[in-house]
Amino acid sequence: MTCSLTRVKALHQAIHDDGMREDISMSQASIIAIDGPAASGKSTLGKRLAGTLGYLFFDTGVMYRAVTWAVIIEAMDVQDEVAVTDLARRVQIDVRPPSLDDQRACDVLMDGKDITWDTRTPEVEAIVSIVSTYAGVRHELAAQQRRIGLRGKVVMVGRDIGTVVLPEADIKIYLDASAEVRARRRYDELLGRGEHPNYLKILAGVRMRDQIDSTRDVAPLKVAEDAIVIDTDRLDADEVFKKAEALCR
Ligand code: CDP
Q1: Secondary structure of residue 170 in the 3-state scheme
Q2: Which of 209, 215, 217 has the most ligand 1 atoms within 8 A of CB, as the residue to mutate?
Q3: 59: which strand partners?
Q4: Measured on CA atoms in the order 100, 102, 103, 108, is the torsion positive or negative?
Q5: N or C of the chain: less Cβ packing under 10 Å?
Q6: Is the CB of 132 under 6 A from ligand 1?
Q7: What distance in angstroms lies between residue 112's CA and the mean position of ligand 1's atoms?
Q8: Which residue's alpha carbon is at the smallest distance from atom 10 of ligand 1?
Q9: Which residues, 6 or more positions from 235, have their beta carbon under 8 angstroms from its beta carbon?
Q10: 224: buried, middle or exposed (CB in 10 Å: 19+, 13-18, 0-12)?
């Protein structure tokens, strides 16, 4: 299935105009890209959409997080681009469907070891955006992501999926929300996991990652020209899901 701007625009129109929906005959999208800033709800939406469609859910952020975790474990200087890039080439990252029912969206394995929760720590979050600026790291990870994405029947989420990794995606969704709303959601998520988060620290972290992710030279976070933007400030997870699902059917 190829991506056509006209088709996406037609679908976009369709969700705003229920009367038109019947008139647009379409086959189901096979490659669905979801991009957006930190904590905009990409994983929540992506997981549910993939479950409903029977597709693979692939969160590309976990790969950048996995490399970052390895940087920390190997006590490497995160500013050493050559060493970090070499590390990204050396390690074997596997992302698999969840094997445990502990709120994880997927298993993240590095060289066979389960590092799923290690990748979600504040230490990783503090420097993951620096690791993600390195062209060699991105080249390595994006190639693996693209190979998986091109098999189709996939919902892939990240920062550059619609712009760089899978520009031919059938549907591109860009999820947005204010930094305050996103920080609040991340805060609630951590509370729900029994942690003791600090809202202001989370907000500062979200803003810092936004800044680095959207201004880097390689594959910066931006809205693909054929993406449909969903502003989620005033929408709950169910409402976002309904809008997105209507686009994909
Ligand atoms: O879940 P959250 O939105 O907080 O972050 P994530 O999706 O797990 O991504 C963590 C970091 O990885 C981001 O802040 C980006 O720096 C980087 N990333 C990226 O550069 N490109 C992607 N396709 C996915 C993540």
Answers
A1: coil
A2: 209
A3: 157
A4: negative
A5: C
A6: yes
A7: 22
A8: 61
A9: 243
A10: buried
43 Cα–ligand 1 center, Å: 11
Q: In what order do the strands lie in the sheet with 171-176?
A: 56-59, 154-158, 31-35, 171-176, 228-231
Scan for tokens 């080439």, then name that residue.
89
> For residue 48, which amino acid is it?
R
Does the pTM exceed 0.85?
yes
CA 44 to ligand 1 centroid distance, Å: 14
> How many angstroms is it from 249 CA to the middle of ligand 1?
27
Q: Which amino acid is at 100?
A: L
Atom number, ligand 1, closest to the C-alpha of residue 68: 12
